[in-house]
């Protein structure tokens, strides 16, 4: 039964439909593992086991009568804490919201339940989803099952840790700065950041907010590429009033393997140097892809100023995140803005300038983005996918340093700014592109490492398919040792 806990969701769903395992058996397996292992990693922070077991028994009864409620019939799964689940608390790790109880399910939760999934818990996040590690005053710190002294990533860190430790069947997270992809990279799991706008974000908002934010997306996480494809097909599509006017029709991959696929490789960049431990695994993946028959080029790049693209991303990112912060924090940004020196390029200065954008200036940066999106579209006329790092290091040690400008990552023996992680995260975020994070084996430090596969807007199935072909070439998820 232990091996069953680490099976990918699409395999579990098939076994449930064939009645090779019951929903109740699978639910009890995960609940037992949570009781045993969750105290070590603190990944699952909201749990309703009694209700979940009742739902599992009901799913088994339905299947016994020939009723299949959807592709995920009876599958136990968790979702990121920031998703609304009716009757459960949604805090975003913020003590001010510790008593906030959702009155309705998020759109993604609705669709997963409609597909037959049993949502039995929620997984941890950083405060306001704003960090590359997952700790907050409401629920505490989440640890990486590969090394408890290391982070599982953020902000979907609890989700990735739960998947890696075999505590859940499938997960749903969100991403505005790598929050789906970084945790997958750090824990050896899979995640997909969809093209902007194709998966509804309703119910994955701070309390009281209903409008979709710029840049932010929600998407699936799992233990295989096929899990991503399955889940995306269930949660993507127009929501609410929009559904009266348009339908989503994602094109198929357009290929059946790497043979002939045009693959650009962006392996390193001075704006975010990549540690050799990560670079080695990316190069091994690129070599395997080339050997499989792909056309691979490590010099091909979109035709734009990379520094301008990254600056544009940071300005729009901080404008979006600051817009939903309390007024006293915004007022503090305004005061600090008057003290900034023109030459100050620190992370804090970047946050302040983005947070205090005039709307006129935001329109100007958005126009820059529109031109960058055209450049990316031109690039993908010649290339099918671009592969690059997810993050510059493997999972790093937990840090309690409150000043982000004083946080550093050890990269090739040198300290590099903590915020440099936003470079690789932002590449597909700014132009609204899909990106799939896939594991590519263990780095020389014994920790998982992944790559990011980016495609043209709407080519989500191409990036997911490429991660599947890579899984078949070099292997995919492997359980961390000691979690049986």
Q: How does this structure look, described?
A:
The protein is 38% helix and 14% strand. It has 15 helices and 15 strands. Among the domains are: 2-252, Amidase signature (AS) enzymes (Alpha-Beta Complex); 306-367, no CATH class. The longest helix has 24 residues, at 359-382. The mean pLDDT is 96. The radius of gyration is 21 Å and the shape is globular.
Q: What is CATH's topology name of the domain at 2-252?
A: Amidase signature (AS) enzymes
Beta-strand content estimate: 5-15%
- Model regions low in confidence, pLDDT < 50 over at least 5 residues: none
| Helical percentage | 25-40%
- Assign an overall shape: globular
Residue-averaged pLDDT = 96
Using the coordinates above, name the CATH class of the domain at 2-252: Alpha Beta
Look at the helices and sheets and give the structural class. alpha+beta
The name of the CATH superfamily of the domain at 2-252 reads: Amidase signature (AS) domain
Spell the H/E element sequence.
Answer: HHHEHEHEEEHEHEEHEHEHHHHEEEHEEH
Number of strands: 15
Rg of Cα set: 21 Å
Largest sheet: 8 strands, mixed
What is the spatial order of strands in the main beta sheet?
6-8-7-14-15-11-9-10
Q: Total number of helical segments? A: 15
Which oligomerization state do the chains in this entry correspond to?
Answer: single chain
Based on the coordinates given, report the CATH architecture of the domain at 2-252. Answer: Alpha-Beta Complex
Distance between the termini: 10 Å
């Amino acid at each position: 039964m232990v091996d069953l806990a680490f099976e990918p969701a699409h395999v579990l769903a098939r076994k449930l439909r064939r009645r090779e395992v019951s929903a109740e058996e699978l639910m009890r397996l995960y609940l037992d593992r949570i009781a045993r292992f969750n105290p070590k990693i603190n990944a699952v922070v909201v749990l309703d086991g009694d209700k979940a077991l009742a739902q599992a028994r009901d799913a088994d009864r339905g299947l016994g009568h020939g009723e299949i409620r959807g592709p995920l019939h009876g599958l136990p799964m968790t979702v990121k804490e920031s998703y609304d689940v009716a009757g459960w608390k949604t805090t975003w790790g913020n003590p001010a919201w510790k008593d906030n109880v959702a009155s309705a399910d998020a759109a993604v939760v609705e669709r997963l339940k409609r597909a037959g999934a049993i949502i039995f818990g929620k997984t941890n996040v950083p405060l306001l989803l704003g960090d590359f590690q997952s700790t907050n005053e409401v629920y505490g710190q989440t640890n990486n099952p590969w090394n408890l002294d290391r982070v599982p990533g953020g902000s979907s860190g609890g989700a990735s840790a739960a998947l890696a430790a075999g505590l859940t069947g499938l997960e749903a997270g969100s991403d505005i700065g790598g929050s789906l992809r970084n945790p997958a990279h750090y824990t050896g799991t899979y995640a997909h950041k969809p093209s902007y706008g194709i998966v509804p974000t309703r119910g994955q908002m701070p309390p009281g907010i209903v409008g979709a934010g710029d840049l932010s997306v929600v998407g699936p996480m799992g233990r295989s590429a096929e899990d991503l494809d399955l889940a995306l097909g269930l949660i993507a599509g127009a929501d609410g009033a929009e559904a009266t006017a348009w339908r989503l029709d994602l094109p198929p991959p357009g290929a059946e393997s790497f043979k002939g696929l045009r693959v650009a490789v962006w392996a390193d960049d001075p704006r975010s140097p990549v540690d050799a431990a990560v670079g080695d695994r990316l190069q091994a993946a690129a070599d395997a892809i080339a050997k499989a028959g792909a056309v691979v080029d490590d010099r091909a790049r979109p035709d734009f100023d990379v520094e301008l693209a990254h600056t544009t991303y940071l300005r729009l990112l901080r404008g979006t995140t600051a817009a939903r912060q309390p007024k006293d924090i915004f007022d503090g940004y305004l005061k600090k803005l008057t003290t900034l020196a023109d030459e100050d390029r620190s992370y804090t200065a970047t946050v302040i300038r983005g947070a205090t954008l005039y709307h006129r200036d935001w329109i100007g940066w958005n126009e820059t983005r529109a031109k960058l999106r055209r450049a990316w579209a031109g690039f993908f006329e010649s290339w099918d996918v671009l592969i690059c790092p997810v993050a510059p290091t493997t999972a790093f040690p937990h840090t309690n340093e409150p000043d982000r400008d004083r946080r550093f990552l050890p990269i090739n023996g040198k300290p590099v700014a903590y915020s440099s992680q936003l470079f690789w995260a932002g590449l597909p975020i700014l132009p609204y592109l899909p990106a799939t994070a896939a594991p590519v084996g263990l780095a020389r430090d014994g920790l998982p490492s992944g790559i990011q596969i980016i495609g043209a807007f709407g080519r989500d199935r191409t990036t997911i398919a490429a991660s599947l072909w890579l899984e078949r070439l070099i292997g995919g998820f492997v359980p961390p040792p000691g979690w049986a």
